[in-house]
Design a protein that fits this description.
By secondary structure, this protein is mainly α. The chain is about 60% helix and about 5% strand.
Length: about 375
């Protein structure tokens, strides 16, 4: 993309900010290596999307994909909640870890709400702002204009704006730049590959940094929202935060390379490699889920009269692979004594594993299933 210009540095008096160019315009691609990567990414994404068609009850498994994305995306921002901790109920989370836990829960709620709202709302600034509002409610950053584009200058890195690693555009241009993204998303006269389009949108969003806090998490969340909104994915089953977190230095370096050298092609290549690796990993995970599901069904059938209730529990565990006796009673309608008996059976069959080591208030996990998402 020889015609791509990222923007320019503008003096704001006592500091300098980066003013990005608008992106709602035609671009041409003449890099064969990029086009080869694009073709491979499209093919792998198509393979992953096929699982939406032939995996029975695929919605059961999406919850864990979202939870993994929430923990990894939040980890990039410094939170330390792992998958097992994220599965806990609030009252079971230690007080010193509760803030991180709440940020992860907000991410899950923001993603699930945004996916639902796509049925009635287009991919738009309105949807982005509402998603941000949910993400920031009741957590660190809740006083930094949740749900509203910023009305003051922000910066990335450094103790002050003068030694910042990057200073986004001045706040008075945020609304116009975000409107430009929205126009680019819905401009049907511009023919540009959808994967490159969302890669460019993600770069531009992170460069604008339209909120005072939470930009990274919202920006990563937008990737999945875009793919679902365009019908490229039938279900929200692709999340790049794990790839970005494992390649964090390259992630930030490639974003800065665009701003400093107009090198959007290198960013595109990095993004597409992320799509390829993540889709392959997603396909392997779904294959492993199907294998585990088959093995688990065989085990539960040995319980004979209790098999039906065991299956109700298993279906719950695919969505939230952590349970206690009280929750099991609610799911099955069994008495307390019968619930404990069923739990004993599921532990014996190596489906459940007790993790507290306590005599009371025991918590059990579906460990083999959780392992697939670690």
């Amino acid at each position: 993309m020889k015609n791509f210009k990222a923007g320019k540095i503008i003096s704001q008096g006592w500091y300098k900010s980066f003013q990005p160019e608008t992106i709602n315009k035609p671009f041409s691609i003449d890099n064969m290596a990029l086009l080869e990567l694009l073709g491979k990414a499209d093919r792998e994404l198509g393979r992953l999307d096929m699982y939406s068609n032939y995996i029975p009850n695929i919605d059961l498994f999406i919850s864990m994909h979202v939870l993994k994305e929430a923990t990894q995306s939040s980890k990039i921002e410094g939170t330390q909640t792992n998958i097992e901790e994220a599965l806990l109920d609030k009252e079971d989370v230690p007080l010193d870890k509760r803030n991180d836990w709440e940020e992860v829960q907000n991410y899950i709620q923001a993603m699930e709400t945004a996916i639902t709202e796509l049925d009635s709302l287009p991919f738009s600034s309105r949807l982005i702002r509402h998603t941000h509002k949910i993400l920031m409610q009741g957590v660190r950053g809740e006083h930094k204009q949740p749900g509203s584009f910023r009305s003051s200058q922000n910066w990335i890195g450094g103790a002050s704006i003068n030694d910042a690693s990057f200073v986004p555009p001045i706040h008075t241009s945020v609304i116009e730049l975000m409107s430009d993204i929205e126009l680019f998303v819905h401009n049907e006269e511009i023919h540009f590959p959808e994967l490159l389009k969302i890669a460019l949108i993600h770069y531009q969003f992170e460069t604008i940094h339209p909120f005072l806090d939470g930009n990274g998490r919202v920006g990563r969340l937008l990737i999945t929202l875009y793919l679902v909104s365009k019908g490229i994915l039938k279900k929200p089953i692709l999340y790049l935060s794990d790839f970005f977190e494992r390649n964090r230095i390259h992630y930030y370096d490639n974003l800065m390379k665009v701003r400093e050298k107009n090198d959007i092609v290198q960013w595109f290549k990095f993004f597409l490699v992320g799509v390829i690796e993540t889709t392959k990993s997603g396909i392997d995970t779904f294959d492993a889920i199907l294998k585990l599901q088959k093995e688990t069904d065989i085990k539960t059938q040995t319980l004979r009269s209790r098999a039906a209730n065991a299956q109700k529990v298993i279906n719950f565990l695919y969505q939230k692979p952590m349970i206690n006796a009280e929750k099991l009673s609610v799911i099955t309608g069994l008495s307390s004594a019968s619930s404990y008996k069923l739990i004993e059976d599921l532990v014996r069959l190596d489906i459940l594993k007790e993790v507290t080591g306590a005599q009371r208030g025991r918590i059990y996990i579906f460990e083999q299933y959780i392992k697939l998402f670690r």
